[in-house]
Specification:
779 residues, alpha+beta, 5-stranded mixed β-sheet, 4-stranded antiparallel β-sheet, 36 strands, extended, disordered N terminus
Length: 779
């Protein structure tokens, strides 16, 4: 018998070939088919041919209990009537039996068993006589030989000590320590034996170089000009018959190509336009593009507001505030006074350090770029002051065309170290003007907005004017802004210290200033601040004040928020008939909208009458004129919502930030009961969200650790399926969806009103019946 080499998966177990299958047959199955181990089948006769029909009947009778169920399909597909079963006494393949799965395997196994057995006998080689070749001499020289007699020692012990009990005890080895220190014995020397060694001599490599200097430089130049035709040659070509034929030949095809380009954009990507209909899995994940943080300016701070630069791509500004409670601010007030809060300008071209720093008198909770002049920035501080900056001297630095702009200073986050100032080359812009302390807000300013240039707000009653205001003033100072504050005071109710103020930044008409006053102003300007708003510094007062529970959202009407309560009101002041004093009108609508503080109130960029509110664990959509209830309200989330924002290209897409650092993307046209995408962005709570619409669509978001994350929005979330977003079919679909929601809400409110009237009529009828019964009883 020829013995094969084993390839085992365990000790003594071979990997069975594909044409057999090891089986475990119970004693009942062995007796049923007549293949009992060591009785019907032995090592000498291990083969048994089973009838295929008997095996199939056994699988039908006992189903999954049958021992042949693992090879059911092989048995059903077996072409012959008899199947070979082999008794494996040695458990070669891990079981006591194995089944041949093909007729070829059956014939091969039976054919091998009929061959004569061949035994391989392994014989050990016989020892040969040693033939010396000279190596025994080297072995003899290197071998160790004893040159002195061996020492003999005799150890004895008394017989009575054998088998005697022994007791051990602990002993502190402090003084009773014997050290065996090596020493040099002068009487004994070691003779150094000679040793044969080999040495190879190689050349030493060295590197050398030489520089040839040109000692006779010469200035050389060359001049070239294009070759052209003379006037006579040009005239001959124009009059040639060959040119005329060529123009007549190609003119129709050129005109046809121009018409096709005018009718259809040949460069549009049809696959991207198809969107999700392309087939396959569509990537909808937000991909982080860059993250910005600074060890000095972002340490122990959080980001309160984010704004993209309106005219310079890749520039984003963030306001850094202290991450501390009111009690911690009071305890560390001295330390906070030494450190000026900052607004950082980050650039995609340099994520290591900010490009510009805006110095603030206090923590800024909101700031905005002027729409008509992006170099002017307004901010609202925690102490109620309104601040103005002018960064026109640093525009080149933000655009990347100049390493630094204007006079640059540095700010140390701990101490005013002169060495630290010299190392820092980031320019710091001092604010141009701040509002008067006695005339400003009395609580933190939570939002600021610029009014359109064509708006004129009356300082008497808050009435909004038309284009006369736009036509009567110089464009560079056509700027009105409104800002508001909201402060929750649990001891005096939720609407304490709430006010809305309008501010005008126009220069007052004054006489010519003396030259001495101008010199004094230059001497009092150590920060080289531009005098754009010098007429407003510390004397700036609001144009109009509106008191009440307000929070601004739109330039004409205000959608207002409180602790989960949505208020819709008008800022126009009304006159008291008795006293003649002006007072704020009562809210038009008051609705309990959310189960927590509302942190976002924003109008849709596509539908100006649709409002998004985010608060607590839900968000909702509202419509002007239908403020009795929400058009749509999301289910309660497992995690609290912290901020929300509309998509700038898809009217039905919302970005919602959560307290666990995750971002929810809602597509209301796809599904409104759950978000379309949930993705973790950071490890802490998301504080702000601001999308940016350009060739590449980015979403800037910040966390509570002071880190700014810029993620790239996948094209499936911003692609409007049209060359113009305003003419996208998504606009029509969203309008139809909102109209259906309005109809549903009006129908629901109408049904509620009808139910209320029915309830009142039933109560009146019951009351009338009681009165009738009492009257009849008295009669």
């Amino acid at each position: 018998m020829v013995i094969k080499k084993r390839t085992s998966t365990g000790p003594g177990v071979e990997v069975h070939p594909d044409y057999i299958f090891p089986l475990v047959l119970t004693s009942a199955t062995q007796e049923l088919f007549g293949c009992r181990a060591d009785e019907d089948l032995t090592e000498a006769s291990p083969y048994k041919l089973l009838n295929k029909e008997d095996v199939v009947q056994d699988m039908k009778t006992r189903a999954a209990v049958s021992d042949f169920s693992p090879v059911k399909q092989f048995v059903l597909d077996y072409p012959d009537d008899e199947i070979l079963l082999v008794f494996d006494r040695e458990f070669t393949y891990g079981q006591s039996f194995y089944l041949a799965l093909t007729p070829e395997a059956k014939e091969r196994i039976l054919h091998v068993s009929q061959k004569p057995q061949i035994y391989l006998v392994v014989k050990s080689p016989e020892p040969q006589a040693w033939i010396p070749l000279g190596s025994e001499l080297e072995i003899e020289e290197d071998s160790t030989k004893f040159s002195r007699d061996k020492l003999r020692y005799r150890v004895s012990r008394a017989r009575r000590d054998f088998g005697a009990p022994v007791s051990f005890s602990d002993h502190v080895a402090v003084d009773d320590v014997h050290k065996c220190v090596s020493f040099k014995d002068e009487k004994f020397t070691i003779k150094l034996m000679e040793k044969e060694c080999e040495v190879q001599a190689i050349p030493i490599l060295s590197n050398s170089s030489a520089q040839t200097q040109w000692e006779y430089p010469k200035n050389m130049c060359t001049q070239y000009e294009p070759r052209g035709f003379s006037m006579e040659e040009k005239e001959n070509y124009r009059q040639s018959e060959k040119l005329r034929k060529f123009m007549n030949t190609v003119a129709p095809s050129v005109f046809r190509a121009l018409q096709q380009n005018h009718i259809m954009d040949v460069f549009v990507d049809d696959w991207r336009t198809l969107g999700e209909d392309v087939g396959g899995k569509v990537d909808t994940h937000l991909k982080e593009y860059q993250s910005f943080t600074d060890l000095n300016y972002s340490k122990d701070k959080t980001i309160s507001h984010i704004n993209w630069h309106p005219s310079i791509n890749g520039i984003v500004a963030v306001a850094m505030v202290e991450r501390a409670s009111l009690e911690e601010r009071i305890d560390n007030s001295t330390k906070l006074l030494l450190k000026h809060p900052l607004i950082l300008f980050w650039s995609f071209s340099d994520p290591i350090k900010p490009q510009l720093l805006l110095e603030c008198p206090d923590d800024v909770l909101a700031f905005e770029f002027c729409p008509s002049d992006p170099n002017i920035i307004v901010g609202g501080c925690m102490n109620g002051l309104v601040v103005l900056w002018d960064i026109s001297a640093h525009v080149d630095r933000l655009q990347g065309t100049r390493p630094s702009g204007g006079r640059s200073t540095s700010v140390s986050t701990e101490t005013f170290d002169l060495e630290e100032k010299r190392k820092n080359d980031v320019p710091v812009v001092h604010y141009c003007a701040i509002s008067a302390i006695e005339s400003g807000h009395k609580a933190p300013i939570t939002d600021v907005q610029w009014l359109p240039e064509t708006f004129e707000v009356s300082s008497c009653n808050g009435k909004v004017g038309g284009d006369k205001f736009h036509q009567s003033l110089h464009r560079s100072h056509l700027k009105l802004m409104l800002c508001f504050l909201f402060n929750v005071d649990s001891s005096h109710g939720p609407f304490q210290c709430c006010s809305l103020m309008f501010w005008d930044i126009r220069a007052q008409r004054v006489g010519v200033q003396p030259l001495s006053d101008k010199k004094q102003r230059v001497e009092d300007n150590p920060y080289s601040v531009l005098d754009t708003f010098s007429h407003l510094n510390l004397t700036w007062k609001p144009l109009l004040k509106v008191r009440g529970p307000l929070s601004v959202n739109a330039p004409i009407r205000a959608s207002l928020w409180n602790d989960g309560e949505l208020i819709h009101t008008d800022w126009k002041l009304e006159k008291d008939n008795d006293s003649g004093r002006l007072f704020s009108c009562k809210p038009l609508t008051y609705v309990i909208a959310h189960d927590g503080l509302i942190n976002t109130v924003q109008r849709s960029p596509f539908f100006k009458d649709i409002i998004l509110t985010v608060g607590g664990w839900t968000f909702a959509l509202w419509k002007d004129g239908v403020m009795e209830g929400a058009l749509m309200q999301s289910p309660c989330s497992e995690t609290k919502y912290t901020v929300g924002y509309w998509s700038l290209t898809r009217p039905a897409v919302l970005f919602i930030g959560r307290a666990d650092g995750s971002m929810e993307v809602w597509d209301l046209l796809e599904k409104s009961h759950e978000p379309s995408e949930v993705q973790n962005i950071t490890i802490d709570s998301i504080t702000c969200i601001k999308p940016f619409f350009s060739k590449l669509h980015f979403l800037a978001l910040s966390d509570d650790l002071g880190t700014l994350h810029v993620v790239q929005i996948p094209w499936t979330l911003y692609n409007p399926s049209s060359n113009e977003a305003r003419h996208s079919p998504h606009i029509t679909q969203e309008m139809e969806y909102l109209e259906k929601e309005v109809e549903r809400l009006l129908y629901f409110m109408k049904r509620m009103e009808m139910r209320g009237q029915e309830k009142n009529s039933m109560e009146a009828e019951e009351q009338r019946k009681k009165m009738v019964s009492l009257t009849d009883g008295k009669i």
